[in-house]
Amino acid sequence: MAESEAWPRTVAAARAWQARLQNAIELRPLPGPPCRLAGVDAAYEKEERRLYGAAVVLTWPELVLVEAVGASGPVPFPYIPGLLSFREAPILAAAVRKLPQPPDVILVDGQGIAHPRRLGLASHLGLLLGIPTIGCAKSRLWGEMGELGEEKGSYCPLTAGGVVVGWVLRSRTGCRPLFISPGHLITLEECLKVVMNCLGPYRLPLPLRAAHLWSNRLRRQEMAASSGGAGRKP
Fold first, then answer.
1. Superfamily of structural domain 24-108+116-133+186-222
2. Domain ranges of the chain
3. What is the pTM of this model?
4. pLDDT range class, residue 5, cuts 50, 70, 90
5. Spatial separation of the C-alpha atoms in residues 132 and 27, rounded to whole Å
């Protein structure tokens, strides 16, 4: 979506945008091994009128945190399954653009091409930024999965119409799996490799856990400032 293009405000407009641009998604190999890996996530205030986006950058494969930035703003779109990107993509893109230099790959708490219109939050964000993205969702939105082992690191394909659209990954022994799919400018195999190398002692890969913690920290700080009389940001 071009910066000058009006942001969709209706369900029909959002679905038309997805249908128009789903073929713009490219799955292709990374130009080289990533060095700077970002995680992005958004948190909401209790009334869900405002949200807080965070982008954190870790070195890869060492996974050392080097940068963390955030942005906040009003929620631009209602919650509708399959259209999460129109709710969160603007604030996440704003956070990423605050980084001193763009990351090589972004992990996104949402779907990539494992989406009924093959254009989930990770794919949408990849198109907005022109950066390789990986969808790392906590629930299945689309596709069929096979048998999955209980041990950490177990995985199986996620398929739709007989085509592999992602992976089901057990990120922690005994925990519910994650649903990994390419967003934009990366291959299926690279998605799995990157995420597997980001697993720690938690269900979420380390870049996404760090982004989750940072977005909630931003929310607490801004809400505390608002209650103290500083007022909310416009």
1. archaeoglobus fulgidus dsm 4304 superfamily (3.30.2170.10)
2. 24-108+116-133+186-222
3. 0.93
4. low
5. 9
